[in-house]
Specification:
Four copies of one chain form a homotetramer. In chain A, strand 16 and strand 17 form a beta hairpin. Chain A has a nine-stranded mixed β-sheet, with helices on both faces. Chain A has a four-stranded parallel β-sheet with strand order 12-13-11-14, sandwiched between helices. In chain A, strands 1-15 form a two-stranded antiparallel sheet. The first copy, chain A, is 32% helix and 17% strand. Chain A has two domains: 235 residues, 3-Layer(aba) Sandwich (Rossmann fold); 154 residues, Phosphofructokinase domain (Rossmann fold), CATH 3.40.50.460. The first copy, chain A, contains eleven helices and 17 strands. By secondary structure, chain A is of the alpha/beta class. At the A-D interface, strand 3, helix 1, helix 5, helix 6 and helix 10 of A face strand 3, helix 1, helix 5, helix 6 and helix 10 of D.
Chain lengths: 434, 434, 434, 434
Amino acid sequence: MNYDFSIKNLGECKIESPLSDIGYFTEDKKRLLFNIYLDDYSSQKDKNGQPLSLEIAGPRSKIFFSPAKTKAAIVTCGGLCPGINDVVRSITMTLFHRYGVKNIYGVRYGFRGLNPACGHELLHLTPDFVDDITSIGGSILSSSRGPQDINAMLDYMANLKVNILFCIGGDGTMKAAAQLANIAEQKKLELSIIGIPKTIDNDLDLIQKSFGFDTAIEKAAESIKSAHVEAKGYFNGIGLIKIMGRLSGHIAAYAALAQNDTNFVLIPEVPFDMEGEKGFLKILEKRMRARGHAVIMVAEGAGQDLLRKGNAPVEKDSSGNIRLLDIGLYMKSSIENYFRSIDMEINLKYIEPSYLIRSVPANASDSIYCSSLGQYAVHAAMTGKTGLLVALMKEDYVHLPLHTVASGRTINPHGNVWLRVLETTGQPANMKNV
Amino acid sequence: MNYDFSIKNLGECKIESPLSDIGYFTEDKKRLLFNIYLDDYSSQKDKNGQPLSLEIAGPRSKIFFSPAKTKAAIVTCGGLCPGINDVVRSITMTLFHRYGVKNIYGVRYGFRGLNPACGHELLHLTPDFVDDITSIGGSILSSSRGPQDINAMLDYMANLKVNILFCIGGDGTMKAAAQLANIAEQKKLELSIIGIPKTIDNDLDLIQKSFGFDTAIEKAAESIKSAHVEAKGYFNGIGLIKIMGRLSGHIAAYAALAQNDTNFVLIPEVPFDMEGEKGFLKILEKRMRARGHAVIMVAEGAGQDLLRKGNAPVEKDSSGNIRLLDIGLYMKSSIENYFRSIDMEINLKYIEPSYLIRSVPANASDSIYCSSLGQYAVHAAMTGKTGLLVALMKEDYVHLPLHTVASGRTINPHGNVWLRVLETTGQPANMKNV
Amino acid sequence: MNYDFSIKNLGECKIESPLSDIGYFTEDKKRLLFNIYLDDYSSQKDKNGQPLSLEIAGPRSKIFFSPAKTKAAIVTCGGLCPGINDVVRSITMTLFHRYGVKNIYGVRYGFRGLNPACGHELLHLTPDFVDDITSIGGSILSSSRGPQDINAMLDYMANLKVNILFCIGGDGTMKAAAQLANIAEQKKLELSIIGIPKTIDNDLDLIQKSFGFDTAIEKAAESIKSAHVEAKGYFNGIGLIKIMGRLSGHIAAYAALAQNDTNFVLIPEVPFDMEGEKGFLKILEKRMRARGHAVIMVAEGAGQDLLRKGNAPVEKDSSGNIRLLDIGLYMKSSIENYFRSIDMEINLKYIEPSYLIRSVPANASDSIYCSSLGQYAVHAAMTGKTGLLVALMKEDYVHLPLHTVASGRTINPHGNVWLRVLETTGQPANMKNV
Amino acid sequence: MNYDFSIKNLGECKIESPLSDIGYFTEDKKRLLFNIYLDDYSSQKDKNGQPLSLEIAGPRSKIFFSPAKTKAAIVTCGGLCPGINDVVRSITMTLFHRYGVKNIYGVRYGFRGLNPACGHELLHLTPDFVDDITSIGGSILSSSRGPQDINAMLDYMANLKVNILFCIGGDGTMKAAAQLANIAEQKKLELSIIGIPKTIDNDLDLIQKSFGFDTAIEKAAESIKSAHVEAKGYFNGIGLIKIMGRLSGHIAAYAALAQNDTNFVLIPEVPFDMEGEKGFLKILEKRMRARGHAVIMVAEGAGQDLLRKGNAPVEKDSSGNIRLLDIGLYMKSSIENYFRSIDMEINLKYIEPSYLIRSVPANASDSIYCSSLGQYAVHAAMTGKTGLLVALMKEDYVHLPLHTVASGRTINPHGNVWLRVLETTGQPANMKNV
């Protein structure tokens, strides 16, 4: 990881902030320690020899952009998740009402909408337009996956005289945003690029919790209740749930913590065998003999090694994401075959909530979180900062350079969250034969 | 259909009802007209030459069974649906508190639990045991599918001195219950068999509405919201939902009426072509070109003819139900292939709520409905009536002979409900090329 | 009650219905029996000597109004309830898409909006305008209470060339609509007045169930759960809920049936004493000594005689409704005083959900119900029928003359619903000392 | 505030932790910095001259109590809030399954249940008993307010040989727990006292967020939706909500942030005038003239100075809490009188959700939070630590001495949360005339 947390500015801030009536400002020199334990707070130093630290987000007393002349645009990329519209609303409202920026564009269909070759028109965002959008899920601007030509997008924005671009998206989007910021700098464009990171999988490094995650867990937990009811509804009933989580098991793990009826959680971070004495099927059999029912939650990215055994090539989609093989259906048939082979009746019900957990509106806590992110993003943008994203870390909102964030945060199999999952489910820590 | 609506009694009712403090009783001679329109009420006559009519349910002033000596059992069969526990609670509470019957057995795992060969123990049901069961979905007694030996079950109940059996189940369960009643009569057993019909598909003849259906629609409607959000979230987005409904499209149709965002509803009752000028794919293409997004809801039993084209033999499961081919995945790949073939980008999201719509607790109106059904079932049983089920017809609770009810009620393609679906979705009435 | 169920028409229907592509029509001569029991179906006769019957609602093959020239208006009056926007949407969509009527006005603030003296502008209703309104509670048109000058309203509509007025409202609104229809007839205006009856209290005569009632019960039931939790949360805890229900206890009774934790339901229809051996306080004391907690639900119109003891004059509001005295606070202080007087500690928590139960969006079943009502209202209007309301009776939609419906349906203390409440709560049938 | 964050131990930990199979342990020397900003992390020092820091919670490799001989008790005190049962379940499960402690008592009715003079029996808590308790709100153990005799409680526990007492409660409970720990130490009792802080008002010092707060906000936000619907439902409609928040406005502020339709938030921390040019009534009038509707949310502790104007003495209840005067009804009549005085029609609807926001089960995020708190409390107790509470600070779970926590955290009128409320509502920062 690159630990250079310094933030770039387009230039000196000379304009008095219109927020002066409140009299609440944050100074650039207010910084959050990166390491906050007694034994390690000074273990990493920045180039000034100070303990490593991060810039605190918040409104500044001086701003860079003149509100009357500023044009801002908002783009939403990648998969949907609860709260995107809350962020869009918050950015629009804060720009409009607090800073007096009246020219706000909504970019349609992700980065496609910034590439004139795709032919999508921009929306004009106003307080009236965004007022009620938080009551619906998804993105009012629509989204898309995959990259677009960086220069085409920069030229388009330059023509439109857009000064600020807010990018709401995941790992790939933040990378593209970093590129936009870098090349804009090379081209000496007066363009601030601000990221608001989004991932339903909650797997972004450094960031305390992705927005929308709480809401998704609430929905995912409903499917556990459902699977439990089905499992207990029949003789030797098994409820099997496949849930989102491509590279990490955050959703599966937290859903299991939220709803106590899960007996097995299978995630990408913790490999397991199906066969053998310690393998999953044997352990499931023991559970069935002892209790007569079981609920299994499997993240979509779990057990990919089991499916790929020495064959299938790894495919990728247009965004460069690996095409996963279907662990859910694999588990379903493996379990059914196994119990058929030992002549033991079971009744397995398969549940795949898929998009149902992510396409709902944000719940209250996510809604609050999203409106904060939007406000801090605007504060950062108006001061001419660029190439950063706003993030919650240790309950403080900070500015992180775009390059520092990548999807890669996983559940630590020796950490506290997984320990609690093991406690809650009662499943063995090890389901590998060796 | 057999129009003999006469109800059998085990014998004369000589015991004063313990409900006399309320002073509210219904008489056997109170009967609901079967035909209630001015032009047809006397179009069908019973054997007495009277307009065809049905016995009204309710407490009678005299009862047959002596509460102190009565033993009752409750069995739940077939698929789960919201409200089963409400019925179980209501039967138990009414027997115990209103009639003073203290011996109430809960039969585990459907008819299996009445066949001693299966080795399941009976539960003893008390007010304390059932008090809070309505807050959870499914069946507290568990269920099973498929038949058991009729004589084995009758012998088992005779040994236990069970006088009343309440059967909560679907079409097949009501048929088995009818057999139990017939053979019990032949064997001169003093056993009252009372059915409470259940089907998530709402497809039972004569019955106004299945319990649990309202709740299932509420959940099914949520998946439409979700599909709509996904469809609008991407360029040329399509949300495709596969929903329960094996032989009838009640769930799909009513969910579409409850949530306005559906554009196509495909049900078993209304055949359609995929290919051709009038076929579904062409019409979907037009919709996509005009509006840029679409939501499609397909009942699992729809379009089976398309999948079976001159080949696959029809398989059946242990309950005798036809194994359906997967119309959802067929639609998914057909749509994707079609748009690929015309080189038009779409983004299709597939949602299959499956058990999520049926394993929730009953909502308020279903809860009220279920507690009524339970109470009327007990009133009928205590008077020694047998071979009947309690049903809501035209807002009145009636006694129907078990043999009169079968699953077969479908959506009439020329009727009012389907008309309203067409109005709501805007889809063409005819998607067949000929 | 006036049993003349004949429906007035503005004139002969000569225009082919635009719905002919569906081929589903209802004929005027299709009539529902008013009495549907074997022993009374011919107990009441109409002027032709036929059993009393009602016209069935539905689309007719010939219509009266020429769609291109027709102007319709929709007005919403009285208290809010779930589903009003569903009715408004359904009327608008059916007029626009099915019949081709493009001029549809939304009247703001109830009948005020039809009185030009109030100065409110009309809204122009379009499919786009109404598309998403079902996701919010209340009335998109806003409402008001109280009457307006009938002639002023008729003149205003005549000037605007409005041919159809849809009135969504309660008892008083239906009376005003009847007046509008009568005077319009005297003035020979070509104006169809169609009512869609609405009352959160579910107390309209003849009508099977008010729209929005299911949803309100669902919310009211939540408050019982809450009161139960509070009652069990403390030593000798009592949860006291005051709930809507001015003249009838439908909400209180059905909420208690939906959520089993209520121990006492007090409604306007069943008088009770507070003091004395059989009085409520003594019975509550017994319950508290036996079980240590209690949940009491009191309808706002209950026990008004207790509060008025030989004094307070009965006041009325601008709509002519009686101003109720606050039975909730009276109960609260009476209970607290009583237990203080016998030196017994209790912990009483008072809950008044008030508008929380009526300002939510319609649930699925109400939403379906409301869209039906809207469609049938439009079918009736387009055929030039007037002075009627559309209503669900015995699961059939019928046309009822406006004058036949009044709020007056109460819970029968000797009927089936109250019996079931007594069974559910276990409260004594009689809490009067004499 | 006392900044001595050192934690007391009953003695040396000599027993191997039974959690060794997981291999995940936290060491006492792992400490979280109290100040985590670059400019202040060393501004406060502990007695060793180190930057002020706090002990991190978590399982230790060695424990103090021998599981087989340990008896634990759990008590829940003060007002109910969502998640109490989740904490009780988690403590019980972790003690039983992870540490093997089988003797776990549930204390009924708060500290009353530890005073034998009150005569309440203890419950025996088992995994089966607590398995499903998280699906219901409140406290399965019941609660009570007010103090009990410290020595009587200690003697009672000594007689029962209780080694660990878990106290779930608020400010007052933590103070009583501190007393129990102090006197137990003086008496040389081997008794570990562990607090789990609880307050629906979210006003405890140092603690990041109270458990149950998220859930309460979710419910409180529903009442804003409701008030908004009512306000827009009538001519010049006003929705007025009184919400919990005795000494702080956290609930009101966060609910307003979660649901955007609030126009005024009034909290104890920000005084306001009713009368005068800058007073609330004048500002409300302007809003009504401009927009025609308004939603006002007032915390129960707001504006107490307005109600007490130079008269009413301050009363206190048995727990020593100030009896608040009713700001809700005061606002209601003040607003109605004001608009009557200027002859302007308004329609005010008053909503008081009261206990409805706190008696629901925990939502997913609170449920996860509560189960963590319970687990950390058990880890702390088993190592013989005492006189501490477990708390979330800066996303880390820490041990805080009981004496350091008091209710006193308020909304800073010049801080970030209030700024965001002002942004969201658009209300003036100052509604005082001077």
